[in-house]
């Protein structure tokens, strides 16, 4: 099996609100492959997809009645501590719940966490040990 991720799909409560958050708030551009009930965003070599949480649970043959931490976080790595702060501030103004303000970490970086408007947990991190290639993809 190849060590590769192609698509991360997040179940959302209201696709239109989610699209407004990412498209209008963060200026992300939807892929032409997006449809009425699903949206795709190319993000550094992989695709982040948004789909109805209820429909996604049904598709995966899972119950949609759970709550709490689902055991997944999605990381957005920055090129500086200042960029971490800017991203955290921006998502806060868009309705994200800051669950851990940015701070120095025990691994030598700087990071904070937020929940987007559908409760998905994102880490925003600066890691001085990571470098980016010419296309802004992590080289780790």
Structure description:
With 140 residues, the chain is of the alpha/beta class. It contains 3 helices and 9 strands; from the N terminus they run βαββαβαβββββ. The chain has helices at 15-25, 53-59, 81-93; strands at 7-12, 38-43, 46-52, 73-78, 97-104, 110-115, 121-126, 131-132, 138-139. It has a 4-stranded mixed beta sheet, covered by helices on one side. Strands 1-3-2 form a 3-stranded mixed beta sheet. It has a two-stranded antiparallel sheet with strand order 8-9. A hairpin with a 5-residue loop joins strand 5 and strand 6 (110-115). The model has no long low-confidence stretch (mean pLDDT 89).
Summarize the structure.
The protein is built from three helices and nine strands, in the order βαββαβαβββββ.
Keywords:
single chain; 140 residues; alpha/beta; 4-stranded mixed beta sheet; 3 helices; globular
Let me know the average pLDDT: 89
The assembly state of the depicted protein chains is single chain
Tell me about the largest β-sheet. Answer: 4 strands, mixed
Radius of gyration: 16 Å
How many strands appear in the DSSP assignment?
9
Low-confidence stretches: none
Can you list the strand order of the major beta sheet? Answer: 4-7-6-5
SSE-based structural type: alpha/beta
Counting DSSP H or I runs of 4 or more residues, the number of helices is 3
Protein topology:
Elements: E1 7-12, H1 15-25, E2 38-43, E3 46-52, H2 53-59, E4 73-78, H3 81-93, E5 97-104, E6 110-115, E7 121-126, E8 131-132, E9 138-139
Parallel strand pairs: 1-3, 4-7
Antiparallel strand pairs: 2-3, 5-6, 6-7, 8-9
């Amino acid at each position: 099996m190849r060590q590769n991720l192609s698509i991360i799909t997040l179940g959302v409560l209201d696709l239109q609100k989610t699209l407004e958050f990412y498209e209008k708030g963060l200026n992300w551009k939807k892929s032409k492959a997006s449809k009425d009930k699903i949206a795709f965003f190319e993000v550094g070599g992989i695709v982040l997809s948004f789909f109805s949480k209820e429909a996604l649970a049904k598709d995966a043959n899972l119950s949609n009645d759970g709550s709490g931490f689902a055991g997944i976080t999605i990381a957005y790595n920055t090129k500086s501590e200042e960029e971490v702060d800017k991203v955290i501030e921006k998502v806060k103004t868009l309705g994200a719940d800051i669950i851990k303000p940015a701070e120095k970490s025990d691994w030598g970086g700087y990071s904070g966490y937020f929940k987007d408007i559908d409760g998905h947990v994102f880490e925003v991190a600066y890691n001085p040990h990571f470098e980016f290639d010419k296309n802004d993809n992590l080289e780790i």
